[in-house]
Specification:
Shape: elongated
Strand content: 15-25%
Structural class: mainly beta
Strand order of the largest sheet: 1-2
Order of helices and strands: HEEEEEE
Largest sheet: 2 strands, antiparallel
Number of domains: 2
Number of helices: 1
Number of strands: 6
Distance between the termini: 38 Å
Length: about 90
């Protein structure tokens, strides 16, 4: 997207950029289709859980014409993955 809107309006910046006047628009990411994004809801960071099956709730989204095919879950920082059932 060109012109003023493409250069200044639809940009993504890191959270520490709080004011428009401090933003370097040449370094902002242009917004487009949303990337695949997922979130587990209902657990607290660092929470200890009992062993055994555990229901997990959350969401996964994809932009444009894309769709989520499956959701894999890891409880050991990505060393092993298990396919979620939904």
């Amino acid at each position: 997207m060109g012109g003023y809107i493409g250069v200044y309006s639809y940009k993504l910046f890191p959270p520490y950029i709080r004011e428009e006047k401090t933003a370097d628009f040449s370094r902002g990411l242009a917004l487009g289709e949303i990337s695949v994004n997922a979130l587990i809801c209902g657990l607290l960071e660092g929470e200890t859980l009992p062993a055994g099956p555990l229901p997990v709730q959350g969401y996964a989204i994809a932009g444009g014409e894309h769709r989520i095919e499956r959701v894999d879950i890891s409880i050991d920082e990505g060393r092993m993955w298990v396919g979620g059932i939904y």
